[in-house]
Amino acid sequence: MEEELKQQFDEMGVEPADSVLGRCAELAITYNIHDATEFVEQWMAFSLSHLHGEDPAIENLGDFERKVLQLRKDKACSKTTGQTVKSYGSPSVQDTNSLVTYGVMEDDRMLDDYVSESAVDSSALHTPKAKKESVRSSNLKGGVLFSPASYTPQSAKRKAGLETPSNSVAGKPGDIVDTFGHPKLLAGSSWQSQMEHTVPVTQKLLHNEASLTIANLGYMNDLLTDRCHNLRVRFDQTGPALVDKKLGQAGAAECIWYPQDRQVLQSAGGLHALGMIHSEDDGPLDAHSAFMAVLDDDIEDEMDPTLTLNFSRVKSASIFPGQVVLAKGFIPRGKTFMVEEIHTERKLTPATPLQIDRELQFVVASGPFTDSTDLFYEPLHDLLKYLKDHRPDVLVLTGPFLDADHKMVGELAETFDTFFEKMIGGIMEAIGSHTAVLVVTSQKDAMALSVYPTPPPTLRRTYPNLYMLPDPSLVDLDGLTLGVTSTDVVDHLLSHEFAVNAGERMHRAINHLFHQGSFYPLYPPADEDMAYDSQLALKYAQLKQLPNVLILPSDQRHFVRLVNDCLVINPGRVADKKGGTFARFLVAPSVPGKPANMFNSVACQVQRI
């Protein structure tokens, strides 16, 4: 536990003494906190709220125990008195500790609202409070800026058999539901751009010096032989790096091929098998469905280049279909490989150090932007009202903007392209020319090409501060490298992985992207409706170098993480039945005399719409 705590504190730029780490481990065990990330998040919240960001010490850990850990333990006991409930899938009261990340730890209202929200379906742990109805307001031309030309609300609702929607959510608009960053930056920020400044935007995810566009797009010819070749290329790029990380160049050079199975390396440390993970039924992995395919040109055609994996001896593992891994173990008989260790990490190319010379303000919002029962786009109106008041330097919007699966999409009497252009025009009119607007559509959008990677749609009208980007994208913003995708790769990874004692879920999902060097490393795709093109992915979905900031919108609960000195943000969805959210963050120039890392340079908050 101490090593895990040390790692998490290191990522926050904190270096506690060994005695302090020992005391932290004791507290974590005493109060049943088994996740080091959760414990560190609770400490950072307390430190920010009560100690002005001080590092942990034996003295202030006593206050932390009394004001946070013991208090929450008492609340958990009082709320569950007299209730014997068996709940599946809902977080316990203790689990909610990490949800008010870095916020005011004694804000009972926010904690209670989250417990209410997460326990509605299971009726466990907590009696929900009376929900508040979201009050939406807009001063944008009567609130019809984004409504389709032929959309009749009354008739549409009658056809769908719906009454007036009730957007009951926990909390109220403007609530801060997640916070991360340096305490001084958080305390001193007005979340408004201090001066007008044009932010240059440069695409970095290129093939033959060109980004993905409809003009240079060729798809629907992804042959089986091409897919096999592209998987081999991925294997060749990742496999040797895994061997080098684990065994070193000298150790890898001394490895010899195991005589019966050329895919298995035999070294002084035992047998190491290098290959790609697959599922027997092309679905989610479990302990019995995973096997390893080995891509070796020297294996004769009649040989079966696969190993059945047995995980009965493994202590820790996290694997998913399409992942290149280095497995250590032995072969008792036939083609069964007894796995003792799974190695998935390689040496990463760190992000380019920040080169900004002034503070930059960002807002990130992810679709859908309208409720599932109408096409009024009221959540988008509310977001634009915030943007008009705060005027950030950069706005990042990810799709879907017009979900092809929306039940009202058939009510449109105009083309999807026309409706989307009208929406973009309304956004740009509301925002003005001060903010650089980055738009990443989704293959789920009705007007987008149904292929991944997805090129941006073309617009008849251009705007000097609007940048239509493909999914995924990697861009340089005045000295900051930003990666962004609209595909829910986090949910896809977590739903299809097999994990045993593998640490915090979001942290390991993000690390999968980094160590596999891809914005979408799963194969086959987790979504059967996803038109994945392996040739395009090889050209336009690789993640060879870490960005400074990575945007990963997901149906998973919003989060902010610092992983390998990369700030990773899931802003949540703007339109969500449990309450829409968006993220705002700022990046400041490095302070002379302090370590040049992201923790000392960023502040981030997730805010409710």
TrEMBL record:
GO molecular function list: DNA binding
Record GO cellular component, one term: alpha DNA polymerase:primase complex
DNA polymerase alpha subunit B OB domain boundaries: 266-343
Region annotated Disordered, chain positions: 156-175
Domain annotation DNA polymerase alpha/delta/epsilon subunit B: ranges: 362-560
Residue span, DNA polymerase alpha subunit B N-terminal domain: 3-70
Location relative to the cell: Nucleus
Keyword Repeat: no
Primary localization: nucleus
GO biological process, one term: DNA replication initiation
Pfam family, one: DNA_pol_E_B
Classification via InterPro entries: DNA_pol_a/d/e_bsu, DNA_pol_alpha_B_N_sf, DNA_pol_alpha_bsu, OB_DPOA2, Pol_alpha_B_N
The entry's keywords: DNA replication, Nucleus
Known function: Accessory subunit of the DNA polymerase alpha complex (also known as the alpha DNA polymerase-primase complex) which plays an essential role in the initiation of DNA synthesis.
PANTHER family per record: DNA POLYMERASE 2 ALPHA 70 KDA SUBUNIT, DNA POLYMERASE ALPHA SUBUNIT B
Family statement drawn from the similarity comment of this UniProt entry: Belongs to the DNA polymerase alpha subunit B family.
Listed name of the protein: DNA polymerase alpha subunit B
Organism of origin: Drosophila sechellia (Fruit fly)
Gene from which this protein is expressed: Dsec\GM10379
